Amino acid sequence: MAVYTVLEESDIASFIGRYGVGTLAGYQGIGDGIENTNYFVSTDVSQLASETSTADQRQFVLTVFEELERSDVEFYLNWLQVLNDGGLPVAAALVDSHGSSLQTVEGKPAALFPRASGGHLDNVTVEQAFSAGAVMAKMHLIAAQHSAQHDSPKNFAWVEDSIAKLLPLIDDADAQLLTDSWQQAMATLPQYELPSGIIHTDLFRDNALFDGDDVSCILDFYSAGNGRFGYDLAVLVNDWASEQDGELNDDKHRAILAGYDSVKARSQDEIKAWPLLMQLAAIRFWVSRLTTIHLPSLDHRPGALTQTKNPEQYKAILLKRQQLA
Ligand SMILES: Nc1ncnc2c1ncn2[C@@H]1O[C@H](COP(=O)(O)OP(=O)(O)O)[C@@H](O)[C@H]1O
Ligand SMILES: N[C@@H](CCOP(=O)(O)O)C(=O)O
Known about the structure:
This protein is an alpha+beta fold. It has two domains: about 10-115, Phosphorylase Kinase, domain 1, CATH 3.30.200.20; about 125-320, Aminoglycoside 3'-phosphotransferase, Chain: A, domain 2 (Alpha-Beta Complex). About 40% of the residues lie in helices and about 15% in strands. It has helices at about 10-15, 70-85, 125-145, 155-165, 170-190, 230-240, 250-265, 270, 275-295, 310-320; strands at about 25-30, 35-45, 55-65, 105, 110-115, 195-200, 210, 215-220, 225-230. Strands 1-2-3-5-4 form a five-stranded antiparallel β-sheet, covered by helices on one side. Strands 6-9 form a two-stranded antiparallel sheet. Strand 4 (about 105) and strand 5 form a beta hairpin. Helix 6 (about 230-240) crosses helix 9 and helix 9 packs antiparallel against helix 10. The radius of gyration is 21 Å and the shape is globular. The chain starts with 8 loop residues before the first helix and ends with a helix. The model has no long low-confidence stretch (mean pLDDT about 95). Adenosine-5'-diphosphate binds near residues 30, 33, 115 and 222. Ligand LJ64HWYM binds near residues 154, 288 and 309. GO terms for molecular function: homoserine kinase activity. Its EC number is 2.7.1.39. It catalyses: L-homoserine + ATP = O-phospho-L-homoserine + ADP + H(+). Belongs to the pseudomonas-type ThrB family.
């Protein structure tokens, strides 16, 4: 259950009051998520003079950022606005009557977002895989036009540092595989000139909502930062197009790449570096999942331990991707 900051009805009503979006009609803590506190909130807009729609209620998500620094939240809210202005399906924070999107709740940063329609996918069709690739390419096109700078909390420097800390804690065969794979990848990466910008870094299926075949909202930008676009795409493919044993599902893999290329054609170097990028993305999540288990005190996310994800899955994906190189 991802509600760490418990809010009373009166807290939520006064929070909502800053926005002029009607009176509180209902609220419910959101069970999904591991990092922040989220509530679904609905308001009654029937008394609002400005309301032109026929609906009686509007739906929002109230987020309390449990661990992020205020300056980081500020960056993410601005970035969401940039993506929203560029036409990407994201939920940009509402601005209150004083012109601010960033609030404070119990001393922590907080914001109000429109609630997006759509649901999470259990099984991905090739049409949905195509849409996911296309929407990521659109996001990268917007990012390529901006010179924003932000360190992703789990960038390659973090991976390298975490590997060093993990080596004494994991079995010898895994330690060897991790060391060799990482060193080989880092030695090969500079051969390629790979375009970069602000990337999502964690676009797993649980961070996207779908209406039918279309992405209705990309969620959870709170690990975004500078990185290579091809690496972001590899993170997506490893989650959306892997079988249980880590093997690539050819149809979904092809559909994601076709969707991506239909919006932003990959460069020759991005294509040549593709197996390497998938390996890097696999190492990153093998390492973060190992870290949650072996170094829990370093994991800043309050719900990480209760929602532990299986590191072996990403080791299997790494081994399968190495066979493609
Ligand atoms: N704007 C939104 N519209 C609809 N659902 C949302 C929205 N924001 C969050 N959610 C729901 O809340 C869940 C948790 O949000 P997320 O940002 O992933 O949390 P956390 O940062 O804690 O991991 C999402 O998986 C989604 O189901
Ligand atoms: N998608 C990740 C969970 C989020 O991980 P984080 O390391 O970016 O906080 C996974 O499935 O491991």
